[in-house]
Design brief:
The chain is of the alpha+beta class. The chain has 9 helices and 11 strands. The protein has helices at 12-20, 24-29, 64-67, 72-85, 121-127, 135-154, 191-212, 215-226, 233-249, and strands spanning 2-8, 34-37, 41-48, 51-58, 93-101, 104-113, 118-120, 157-158, 167-172, 175-180, 187-188. The N and C termini lie far apart (48 Å). The mean pLDDT is 92.
Length: 251
């Protein structure tokens, strides 16, 4: 039997949102400009009285995990809530729902509150490259990204898609504020697998950071992440692992 669930957070703004989209199917009937689209999902924006929302529609699920209750939709919802519990800034979940058969997600939607005055780091690097020359701004961003990665890894959690496009920066005067978005692949790891996934996360960040940051700035990031005042033998070994991973990945 196919079942459906559609629920919202216990907030006034979520209640207003449900006034516009009472059943889950109304989300799929909504027509607007698609901001991004992948093989399983698409994202669009919706506004209510000046408040912005991002609607992510999962129109398809695939893979064994989606049959076992671990679809990308379910994992993304869980991860956004985890980030907030861990004290990280993340886009607030306003509403979510799915159509499912037993534990298999057929399709669904996730609605998050838009972060005002924000852009992801990939867009900033492309559209406002001068910010990367602002030492005060860049120093704060480096420190916040390092702190975020450290907290995730301390919880034995790895993002698995830790690229600049998934790091949102809210710009308040000269005080940037980091938000995590779009993490359907993140999960917990243990032992050797955890160590390897940590390396992958940091290598993913460094792939683009190496284009915009000096070696000194990249080293400062690593020291923040490792909570070291100066490089230890363990830190140097970790750096070698990150560089080796990047060489293998990039051929």
């Amino acid at each position: 039997m196919i079942k459906e669930v559609w629920s919202a957070s216990n907030t006034e703004i979520a209640t207003k949102f449900l006034d516009y989209f009472p059943p889950l199917e109304s989300i799929f009937d909504y027509q607007s400009t698609i901001i991004s689209k992948g093989k399983q999902s698409e994202v669009m924006r919706f506004n209510i009285e000046g408040t912005g929302f991002y609607i992510k529609r999962y129109f398809r699920t695939k893979g064994l995990r989606s049959h076992l209750g671990y679809s990308r939709l379910r994992m993304e919802i869980r991860n956004q809530k985890r980030f907030l519990r861990w004290g990280l800034h993340a886009a607030a979940v306003i509403a979510y729902g799915e159509r499912y058969h037993f534990s298999h997600t057929l399709k669904g939607a996730l609605v998050t509150l838009a972060v005002n005055n924000s852009s992801n780091l990939e867009d900033i690097s492309r559209n406002s490259p001068e910010l990367f020359k602002n030492k005060a701004w860049l120093s704060q961003v480096i420190k916040q990204v390092a702190e975020m990665a450290r907290i995730l890894h301390e919880h034995q959690f790895c993002h698995n898609d830790l690229f600049l496009r998934n790091l949102l920066i809210q710009q308040n005067s000269d005080q940037p504020k980091l938000f995590l978005i779009d993490c359907p692949s993140g999960c917990f790891w243990f032992g050797t697998f955890l160590s390897k996934r940590k390396v992958k996360d940091i290598a993913s960040l460094d792939k683009h950071a190496s284009v915009y940051l000096s070696r000194t700035q990249r080293l400062r990031f690593l020291l923040y992440y490792r909570q070291s005042k100066r490089l230890t033998s363990s830190d140097k070994r970790f750096i070698r692992d990150v560089l080796a991973y990047s060489r293998r990945k990039n051929g």
